Amino acid sequence: MKKKNLFAVALATVLSASAIAGCGAKEEALENNAETEVVESTEDAAEAAEEASEEASEDAATETEEVSEESSGAKKLVAGATTGFFGAESLDVAYNWDGWLMSIFGISENLFRLDSNFVPQPWLVSDYKQVDDTTWVFTIKDGIKFSNGTDVTAQAVKDCFDRTYANNDRADSTLSIESMEADGQDLTIKTTQPNPTILNDLCDPLLGIYDANAEVDEVLGVSCTGPYVATEFTAMSEVKMVKNEYYWGGEPKLDEVELKILDDTNALQMALQNGEIDMIAQLDASSTKLFTGDDNFVVEGVTSTRSDFLMYNLNTKGLDDQAVRYAIGYCIDRDNFANVVYEGYATSSYGIYPEGIAYGGTDGLDIPVDKYDVEKAKEILAEAGYTDSDNDGILDKDGEKLSFNAITYSYNDASIQLGDMLQSSLKEAGIELKITTYDVLDEYLADGAYDIAILSYAMAPTGTPQYFVNMLFTTGASNNYAGYSNATVDELAGELATEFDTDKQTEIAKKICQEVVTDRPFDFVIHQQLICVWNKKVSGVTVNPTEYYLIDANIDVEE
Amino acid sequence: MMNFRNGKKTGEGASSDIRLIMSSLAVLLLLAICLFGEHFLPHDPYLVDMGNAFLPPCRDYIFGTDNLGRCVMCRIIAGGKTSVFVALGVVFVVMILGTLIGVIAGFAGGILDNALMKVTLVFQAFPAFVLAIAIGAILGTGIIAGMIALIAVYWTTYARLSRSMILAYKNDNYIKAARLYGASPSAIVFKYVLPNTLGVMAVTAALDVGNVILSMAGLSFIGLGAARPTAEWGAVMNEASAYFQTAPWIIMFNGITLFLAVIVFNLFGDSLRDKLDSKRINK
Questions:
Q1: A-B interface: how many C-beta pairs under 8 angstroms?
Q2: ipTM
Q3: pTM score, whole prediction
């Protein structure tokens, strides 16, 4: 009797537990759905759920298709990633950031392409020359066609840029053009001011080349010149592609490519493990150990220019004191963050830009914080006059406690862990840190509603120092939410903008780095690697540190 | 959420006594561990020690360590304090609040009764957990927000239950007698009616604790409820879910603990109900 009763209760508990767990999972699925379909947020939850189940059944259908296709001998690559790497809203290069994703997909190409050392190399151009400080002539390669069969001429490129500049505000800040002239395959571009980085700027996927004269397909977007062409596309979900029969750079090795978004990293890893997908792009560093010891998989990481860093709100009492910022710098355990959280797929940073770039690393810089040393932090704070006058474990000076609010991304595990680590070591040094996470930080940063922000930005995706200097370091720069202002930096940034000599560019960039590293309004913690993993069947993958490229004509799948 | 079974005649007073004693002891043990366990922990549950990250269960760390080198066992025990006492707090509040609303509705009758019951119906119209998620999402992250979300979901049971009991007792002769003797309505409620409802309320509450623990863990698991680095079972499982392939011990020990805690409270509630049922039948 007693046993029976116990069993009944246990069973009931398990059932209710699984009911609630199931309920939770469903809610989460709904939430994910809602997140990925922000544009269609009017959809109600029921519809979203219905869609989710439809997708699931579609997936099942796709799997059966795959089997039949495989047996018919078509070479197909299926790759997965999270929204951050594959999440396109449309297939229109000019729309928002979609050009970047279309470049990753292997659909669109630019006039120039960055190599693995961030040096621009001609891509769709055969030749180029600089006529004067502001005039450049680019000769478009002969024989290139868009995927709809139309020839790529200088006029077509001009029309393409005209449309992009009309549709996307970012274009003008990427490359400021005064006028363009087309003559056969020669495109003459006049810039508004001398622009030493024009070739790098032309590598920005926003300036990808597409046929602006053909009608834009509602779903499949614009026709480009890349090795693959989309046949099916669902925004923020998946894209199916076939090889571009007009591709100019040799026949693409794959017949079909399918790219899927899976935001649950566990699901993503398991999909690769069970063979549902062949490749994961931008793998979460903490998952690499699932694949590194396994002969069936290849894991490759290249140091990108993406950095995890702290941004201090210089209007916050306490953080306006350089000594406090130095002390916090000493409390960041960069090596363990790089080696444990990032599993070695990141390098500690004590300077500004990553090593490997001419102006990166710490060579030639006088760096004020050079290790993890909480005792040193305590000394600095004591010297600066901070004491624990009320014995609550938190230091104070003139009645102001060293207690700060940190904000970071809710979806970025690594930055949250950096917050957790920092919270623990700062506590030891006598500084209190409270962490809040948000899906989108922009609003809080812009409003100054934070003390310390833990951020992750690509610092030099086009290879130039100007990109980040103009975004963060100059007074009033677009993302300078720290409120940092240094007249020397502003002056040097002005010089940098018009300096054509690369050695001098590097020299100026280094000077700017020295100013920033000394003032420390930002603390660059690590430089990440871009990690991709694929199974042994896949070959010819190049992981490029710019994060601009992935799928290309050389990727092959062994049958 | 509620799973009332039909009143069951046990007729075995001794065995139900033993069950009640055993389950009470289990509940007391659990509460003692949650309350005092913190002072006997071998490690600081919040101390980040990256050199010891991802240690599998070993002699120093019986349940292993997590991604930041924190002791999983210590975090489970520290989390127990949060999870269990938050659940007890929620149940206490909903019991008082729900009963009060039910008593007012049942005793006042008429328009007030109608209005209060309509409000109750509105809250009951939505699936409980979905409503909790919606409220939690509006209020934002945090234990207090999670508690408010759960209170909003759980009070209705008590309101309806106490109202129906008031309606049943209202016309009993002893109440009529009290009225005749000029007892004030509040005296009637507090002296004669409430004591009668207490048993049923206590059983309902005891059975609800397990549900609330699970719901709170559920909220924290999906990112509502407790915020980092608070050690709370659901929040810890949320953090650990990213490593369930590489470090399964973090989520596994948390899951087992959560399961055991819920079982203990449900057994306690169940045997308490059996005990009260048999008492009533014996009457």
A1: 99
A2: 0.74
A3: 0.75
